[in-house]
């Protein structure tokens, strides 16, 4: 008998949010000075979504989006049979041309994710997911005789607007350089029970 041990569940969904309203809200927040330096990124901006920000009424559409994301998180938890998870942190990444997010994970949380508010068609800026380095250090990623996702150490996903990804916080990931002249905008989050 062969069993796959330690599978990594990742949920890919498409929401139906009005991304044009979300994009305008992000622009308005930036004009009001709600921005910070990206922590895992280079050459981008970040807006931390705090209770204080949501109470101002300036993030109405973002608040609605977070409610929809929370519903999807609960559904994912049910599907993979884990305790209900709640969003504890969320932030918006604004990535102009050539901006990236370095390879990282999200310690101190259970699930993490990204929702794509704006993804220019010419961005060519996928998100990459990576197995532990030991997987490739021992050569497992080179042993397959044919295409086999179980033996890959990298999974590359090219998102589009309204895509929602939910994944275990330990899963290392990065975002490749934005090749578009237009910004790529995403909302990221972490959860805890």
What can you see in these coordinates?
By secondary structure, the protein is an alpha+beta fold. It has helices spanning 19-31, 51-55, 60-80, 133-137, and strands at 11-14, 36-37, 41-42, 45-48, 86-95, 100-104, 111-118, 127-130, 154-157, 163-168, 172-175, 184-192. The longest helix is centred in the middle third of the chain and has 21 residues, at 60-80. It is built from four helices and twelve strands. Helix content is 23%, strand content 32%.
Would you count the extended β strands for me?
12
* SSE-based structural type: alpha+beta
Could you list the spans in which at least 5 consecutive residues all have pLDDT below 50? none
Characterize the quaternary organization of these chains: single chain
The CATH topology name reads Jelly Rolls
Percent strand: 25-35%
Cα Rg: 17 Å
> Percent range for helical residues?
10-25%
């Amino acid at each position: 008998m062969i069993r796959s041990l330690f599978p990594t569940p990742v949920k890919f969904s498409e929401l139906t949010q009005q991304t044009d309203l979300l994009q305008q809200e992000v622009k308005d927040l930036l004009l009001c000075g709600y921005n910070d330096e990206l922590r895992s990124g280079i050459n981008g901006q970040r807006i931390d979504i705090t209770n204080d920000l949501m109470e101002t009424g300036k993030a109405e559409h973002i608040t609605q989006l977070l409610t929809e994301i929370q519903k999807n998180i609960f559904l994912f938890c049910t599907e993979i049979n884990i305790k209900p998870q709640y969003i504890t942190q969320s932030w918006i990444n604004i990535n102009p041309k050539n901006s990236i997010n370095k390879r990282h994970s999200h310690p101190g949380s259970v699930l993490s994710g990204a929702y794509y508010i704006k993804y220019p068609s010419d961005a060519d800026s996928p998100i990459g997911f990576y197995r532990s380095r030991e997987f490739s250090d021992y050569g497992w990623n080179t042993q397959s005789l044919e295409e086999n996702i179980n033996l890959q150490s990298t999974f590359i996903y090219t998102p589009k607007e309204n895509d929602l990804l939910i994944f275990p916080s330990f899963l290392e990931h990065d975002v490749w350089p934005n090749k578009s002249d237009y910004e790529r905008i995403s909302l990221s989050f972490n959860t805890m029970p």
